[in-house]
Amino acid sequence: MVYDVFGLLANSDSECYKYWVEWFIYAEGNEYFCEVDEEFMLDRFNLTNLPPMPHYHKALELITDRIPEKPMSEEMRDSVERSAKHLYGLIHARFITTPRGLLKMQEKLKRGDFGRCPRVHCYQNPLLPVGLTDVPSQQAVKLYCGRCEDIYNPKSRRHNLIDGAYFGTSFPHMLMQSFNIKPTPSEQRYVPKIFGFQIHSVATLHRWQDEQRDEQKKRLGPLYAE
Q1: Cys-Cys link to 66, which of 10, 50, 61, 173 (CB 3.0-4.6 A)?
Q2: How many domains does the structure of the chain reveal?
Q3: Whether residues 117 and 86 fall in one domain
Q4: Domain hosting residue 151, numbered range
Q5: What pairs with residue 57 in β-bridges?
């Protein structure tokens, strides 16, 4: 069984964790998150202008393993726990755009923790979590593929419940830029056919797209190769 510092029973079969962040990271459904350094969470500058939430100070005490001064009712503990998860997510969004946070997320990318692109012609390119907005409680997290430059819904229902604001709109692009990750764009695509013949309207569109791409390559010249 797992207990946090408030004595709350967490969901687990056999593992016991000493710190709240450790429990949160290894909880089922939280595989996309990395561990935020305690020093980062304790620096008030990093917490400036966070959206208001109930029991902010108690939630911060919980995620930084500070023992509360007074015992709380079960209802209060549940409310603090919800705020703590939300607060950690918002801090996480800021942390993963720092050099230390980017490094931790790069390791998760290398392990394929975020899954791989379902598009056949992307050949299992690893994905990165991204938010469609930086405003909390608006959109669930999506997964970005740097090869086809498109986004996808997570396969797991648990991951579809994660707030996209816990990763933000800039993270995957900052990581790819910071570590010079440039997946080769896939120029292959599926061509619909009927009895071996391309559908006329689709074939016409594909020819136009190919011509536009070739013209762009000529205009960009060496820049495209980079």
Answers
A1: 61
A2: 2
A3: no
A4: 113-179
A5: none
